[in-house]
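Researcher: Let's do a round of design. I'm pasting the structure tokens now; please hold your answer until I've finished.
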């Protein structure tokens, strides 16, 4: 699969864009005329710079309002075309993109347009150049690739071909089967873009909301398969107009683009055996996630003591300490938490930047090595750490926000890492975080009452809003996970966008909360912890009331919910007042959907906004979004007591 991206898709000055594009691994770039305007150099300078980065210029654009013009305008459009050809020759590219005419003075008629293109083909051929014709979804007379193809066919010139753009075809729901009958040598290039389904003006939608294949809702895979089945083996070029991308980090956006094309190619290879011309390298299947193996916190000794005290109130017992590192293992039900207080290595570096945080997650997959191979094929960065003799080397990749994702499975010794690397301790109290001294012989603090927490229900990651597509693509490309529609969570200080990636079995659920400003709770977390990360961990219980009782015995401090909430929730759902009273007594939040009921109980915050959640699902599929506003108000109240100035 030959890959290309339009320079408009990413932000920055031209050299910065080209560097990011080359580094991400693209083969080529589309150069826009605007690239010269903002850059102090001639087309020849730009061409040289592109080639110095090892890239090919796949096309030059745009050339607008060409076909069907009445005289004397027609004559002038040919003069304009000759000037574009001059630029292309200086630049060192042979393909010009002509998009369908939007001028109100243009004349319709397929024959007239075909004649214009034939003449343009003659002029291009004289210079060894080619012209591709693209139907804009909002073109005056031509707004459908089938009509554009008819014009190209009748122009009957070897230097005139068709340009397909997934957005223009899919936004208008044009039948993609019509692509299969186009001869591959008449398709000069294929542009790809996805977009979220939003009902709005096509031009505005296209100019502001396009995104990478797989990030939106359009059937880009089916479109690409139809193209590939023609035998087309040219460039697939991302042409993404998106306000977020134009404001984002060039390297991250370019890397996303490359990942999206590789993932798209992999999907097409699997779904369409007839699409061999794509020549996409094979990679393992998306990794099936069976559960969360552990979550690891990094902290210094002092913060660790506070964290461990909270874990204890949650009913966790310290069950092991690492053989060679200052890492303690805490367990309850199927949940494993590690507290790492090493003063060197990645955990410590992470602590230095972010403070105490849940910086690593281990996922139990069907095959850890295969998952690692797939992640690397999709451009993820592997993480390798030093291990002591006899210890298990757990494969890991860097997550989007700089955190780690460890990969465990049950088919190798990875499934037994906690037995191999940790010395069991019979500590009922969970005191101390990995101090080696006196392992197993420490005086036992008072016993912890088990709180019936069974497994990790979900992991909530707070990310900068503009990074959300990156995270979604990362998870869905590597793991067998689906994204759900975005919902808005109202924080009193602004909107937080929330979107879930989860697997079908519910063994891995990740909620991504995109913060747009720093005054929201999520935004505060990002600002204070210097980056995206896990902001809360939700554990599942089979009986929230039994859990609440145990937590009380352990001295757990629940997040105190406003009494007004309970009047509202009772009225909204017609709850039995006796149930409302029980909820209120234990600060439990309630929600219901078509599938069942949901109960939520929160801790107060720890550090700069981290907290724990306990949930009981009785068939319920969601995450309690209607309760978020009450939860956020309560958390904010707790973090900034009355009368205290805001930090
Ligand atoms: Mg286009
Ligand atoms: Mg939650």
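Researcher: That's everything. Go ahead.
Model: Designed sequence:
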């Amino acid at each position: 699969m030959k890959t290309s991206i339009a320079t408009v898709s990413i932000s920055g000055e031209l050299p910065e864009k080209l560097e990011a594009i080359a580094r991400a691994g693209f083969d080529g770039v589309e150069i826009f005329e605007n690239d010269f305007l903002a850059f102090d150099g001639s087309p020849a300078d730009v061409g040289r710079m592109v080639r110095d980065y090892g890239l090919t210029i796949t096309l030059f654009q745009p050339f607008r309002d060409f076909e069907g013009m009445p005289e004397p305008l027609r004559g002038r459009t040919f003069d304009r075309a000759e000037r574009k050809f001059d630029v292309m020759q200086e630049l060192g590219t042979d393909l010009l993109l002509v998009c369908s005419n939007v001028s109100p003075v243009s004349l319709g008629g397929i024959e007239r347009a075909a004649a214009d293109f034939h003449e343009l083909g003659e002029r291009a051929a004289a210079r060894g150049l080619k012209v591709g014709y693209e139907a804009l979804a909002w073109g005056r007379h031509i707004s459908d690739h089938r009509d554009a193809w008819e014009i190209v066919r009748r122009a009957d010139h070897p230097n005139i071909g068709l340009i397909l753009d997934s957005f223009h075809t899919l936004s208008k729901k044009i039948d993609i089967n019509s692509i299969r009958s186009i001869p591959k040598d008449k398709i000069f290039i294929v542009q790809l873009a996805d977009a979220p389904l939003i009902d709005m003006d096509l031009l505005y939608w296209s100019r502001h909301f396009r995104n990478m294949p797989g990030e939106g809702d359009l059937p880009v895979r089916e479109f690409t398969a139809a193209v590939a089945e023609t035998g087309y083996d040219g460039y697939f070029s991302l042409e993404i107009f998106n306000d977020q991308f134009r404001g984002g980090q060039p390297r991250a956006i370019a890397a996303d683009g490359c990942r999206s094309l590789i993932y798209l190619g992999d999907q097409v290879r699997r779904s369409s055996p007839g699409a061999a011309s794509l020549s996409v390298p094979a990679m393992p299947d998306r990794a099936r996630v069976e559960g969360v193996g552990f979550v690891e916190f990094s902290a210094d000794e002092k913060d660790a003591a506070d964290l461990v005290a909270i874990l204890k109130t949650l009913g966790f017992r310290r069950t092991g300490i690492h053989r060679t590192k200052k890492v303690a293992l805490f367990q309850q039900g199927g949940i494993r938490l590690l507290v790492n207080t090493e003063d060197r290595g990645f955990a410590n570096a992470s602590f230095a930047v972010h403070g105490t945080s849940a910086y690593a997650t281990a996922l139990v997959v069907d095959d850890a090595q295969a998952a690692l191979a797939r992640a690397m094929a999709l451009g993820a960065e592997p993480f390798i750490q030093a291990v002591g003799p006899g210890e298990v080397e757990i494969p890991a990749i860097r997550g989007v926000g700089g955190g780690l994702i460890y990969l465990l499975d049950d088919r190798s010794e990875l499934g037994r890492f906690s037995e191999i690397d940790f010395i069991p301790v019979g500590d009922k109290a969970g005191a101390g975080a990995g101090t080696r001294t006196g392992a197993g012989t420490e005086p036992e603090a008072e016993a912890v009452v088990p709180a019936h927490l069974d497994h990790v229900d979900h992991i909530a990651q707070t990310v900068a809003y503009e990074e959300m597509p990156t995270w979604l693509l990362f998870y869905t490309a590597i793991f067998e996970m689906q994204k759900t529609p975005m919902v808005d969570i109202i924080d009193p200080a602004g909107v937080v966008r929330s979107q879930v990636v989860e697997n079908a079995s519910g063994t891995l659920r990740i909620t991504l909360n995109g913060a747009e400003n720093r005054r929201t709770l999520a935004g505060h977390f990002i600002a204070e912890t210097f980056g995206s990360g896990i902001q809360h961990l939700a554990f599942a219980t089979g009986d929230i009331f039994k859990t609440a009782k145990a937590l009380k015995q352990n001295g757990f401090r629940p997040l105190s919910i406003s009494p007004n909430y309970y009047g509202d929730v009772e009225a909204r759902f017609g709850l039995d007042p006796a149930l409302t009273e029980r909820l209120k007594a234990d600060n439990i939040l309630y929600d219901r959907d078509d599938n069942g009921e949901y109960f939520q109980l929160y801790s107060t915050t720890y550090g700069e906004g981290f907290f724990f959640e306990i949930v009981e699902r009785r068939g319920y599929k969601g995450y309690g979004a209607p309760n978020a506003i009450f939860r956020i108000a309560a958390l904010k109240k707790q973090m900034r007591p009355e009368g205290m100035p805001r930090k």
